[in-house]
Amino acid sequence: MLDSDKAKMLLNDYIEDTLDPATRNELEAFLQTDAECRTFFREAMDTRRRLQSLSVVTPSEQFDEVLRQRIVAYVQEGEKTSHPKRGVSVMVSGGVLLAALYMFFFTDIGMAPSHDEHVMPASTISTAVPGMKPAVQKATTPDKASIPKDSMETNIRKDAQKGIDLISDPK
Predict the structure, then answer these.
(1) Do 35 and 75 belong to one domain?
(2) 32: Cβ–Cβ under 8 A, 6 or more apart, which residues?
(3) What is the pLDDT of residues 76-118, one digit of tens each?
(4) CB 128, CB 121: distance < 8 Å
(5) Domain with 39 in it
(6) Would you say 111 and 123 are in contact if contact means Cβ atoms under 8 Å apart?
(7) Domain finish residue from 53, 70, 86
(8) 40 and 79: one domain?
(9) What whole-number distance in Å separates Cα of residue 24 and Cα of residue 13?
């Protein structure tokens, strides 16, 4: 049984009249029932007829040589204009690189004094600073009452009461 996709795959063979009679009859019967495919086939056949009705254009004897000269001239013109652009992009890239290096080596970003005496600037984290004590956080243990109950525990107990075992491996 044909569908739209299979019918469209047979389009070229149908237009070229290379289908075997059984397949051609099946396709034509399908086209009677599928309006979308029928329209698609008609448009394809109409396009083919129009293309075949176009007159043949014969190029002049110098066409090949003239075309080659135009292509070479176009390529050479493109090469001439691309060099200044390349130079500008190299200069801009170099300037950006120099600015980044300057910022990296000659600025004191992160060395400004902190408002909080226990907070160290990011740039000094790996370096010991004389006279400055590192901030120490004390670990606290929360009350059992403040910890919310695990919802899975409740669900496991309910499932166990119903005889449902979601945890163990079935074997």
Answers:
(1) no
(2) 38
(3) 887 665 555 667 778 888 888 888 877 777 776 555 554 556 6
(4) no
(5) 4-53
(6) yes
(7) 53
(8) no
(9) 9
Determine the 3-state secondary structure of 4 from DSSP. helix
Assigned domain for 157 exists: no
Give the Cα-Cα-Cα angle 102, 103, 104 (nearest 5 degrees): 90
Predicted local distance difference test score (pLDDT) of residue 42: 92
Residue 11, both tokens? 């389009």
pLDDT digits (tens, 9 = 90+) for 5-37: 898 899 889 888 899 999 999 999 999 999 999
In a domain, 63, yes or no: yes
Q: What is the Cα–Cα distance from 71 to 54, expressed in whole angstroms?
A: 28
Locus of tokens 């698609």: 40
Q: Which residues contact 7 (CB under 8 A, 6 or more apart)?
A: 27, 30, 31, 34, 37, 41
Q: Is the pTM of this model over 0.70?
A: no
Count structural domains, the chain: 2
- Residue 167: inside a domain, yes or no? no
SS3 23: helix
The DSSP 8-state label assigned to residue 139 in this structure reads P
Residue 71 host element (H or E): helix 63-106
